[in-house]
Each structure stands twice: as C-alpha cells, then as structure tokens.
Amino acid sequence: MSIKHGLLALLERGPAYGYQLRSSFEESTGATWPLNIGQVYTTLTRLERDHLVRALPENSQGQRPYAITDTGRAALAVWFSTPVASTDRPRDELAIKLALALTTPGVDVPAVVQTQRVATIRSLQEYTQLKKQAGEHDTAWTLILDSMIFRAEAETRWLDHCEASLVRETVKAPTHDAPVVDGVVTEHREASRP
Question: What are phi and psi of 177, to 5 degrees?
C-alpha cells in the first residue's frame, strides 16, 4: 500500500495536519490498515521534500496543516490512472511458506495447509460478519470487505488445490518397499498420506 499516495488523496480534499490525516485514512478504509502517526509525519516530511505538499502556518493549537501542491496533484493523477502491478505488491508469504515446507525435511505439509485453511475460513467468517454490520451507504468500507472476502475465498480454493496436488504426488511417489530391479523402481504403490 502506498501511504504517500493515500495521504495525497486525503490532502486533495483540503489541508489537514497529521492526526487528521491518520483519522481520515482509517475512516476511509474501515481501519483495516491502521497507520502509525510516526509513519504519517515521516511521509509528510518526504512529500514536502519532494514538493508534493507544502506546510502551512501552525494553527492556534500548534498544529501544522499541510496542503497538496500542483506537483502533488499531478503525482496523484498518475497514481490513480496507473494499474497496480503484481510486482508492486508484497511477496506472497503463504506461497513461499508452502514452497519451502515442501522442500524442507521433516515438515508436515498437509498440517501446514490445514492450519492455514482454518485461519482463512475464520477470517472469511469475520469479514462476512463485518459486511452484514456495515451500513448500506458505506460503499468504501463495503468494497474493501468485498475485496478481503474474495481474496479469502480464492485462498481457500488454492489451498484445496494444494491439498489435492499433495495427495496426487503422494499416490505417485514410490514407497520404500517397492520392488527395485537394477536400481529402477518397477512399480508405484499407493503410499499412506503423511
């Protein structure tokens, strides 16, 4: 997620100081990705350095609001008009974990899959419950929940596929007691599932 562009989008609504930006961001995204106030101020400093925002005079409470610049508006327009590439997203930790589990001796891979499935289904139930509680007019929050629900459903289908593939590979794999003639396994026997 680009905090930089998120803050620019919020500043497009009007000048705001750090705590207002954090509250607005969390309000807009249903607090799905809470922001650390330190991240907000660090990002504002970088945006100011890059001339994408400018600091305004402090208000009577000592808070310094920021305003988006024309350069910032141009950067925001580019962000909105550019699709998110898969390479821009963080690594898929689950795929990496399963790949490494398959190649690491002693790992109970079906247990790894099952543990993930339980967690994913629990998340899916939570997202579905949150969607039921969401107001009809909170379109932004509802769309975020839809995204999370679709992702959880896709992950569950992928885990089903992983489990089926593991079963197929286990069935094809030779057992230790399969007959060997001149160093060649002569038949495949169904191995018990690990």
Answer: -100, 10
Per DSSP, 16 falls in state B
Domain ranges of the chain: 3-87, 90-172
Determine the 3-state secondary structure of 55 from DSSP: strand
pTM of model > 0.85: no
Beta-bridged to residue 185, according to DSSP, are 180
CATH classification code of 3-87:
1.10.10.10
Which residue, among 150, 158, 169, has the nearest Cα to 113 in the 3D structure? Answer: 158
> Could you give the CA distance from residue 153 to residue 125 in angstroms, rounded to a whole number?
10
Q: Which residues of 88-118 are buried (b: 16+ CB within 10 A; e: fewer)?
A: eeeeeebeeebeebeeeeeeebbebbeebbe
* Cα–Cα distance measured from residue 34 to residue 1, given in angstroms and rounded to the nearest whole number: 12
Tens digits of per-residue pLDDT, 93-123? Answer: 888 888 888 888 888 989 999 999 999 999 9
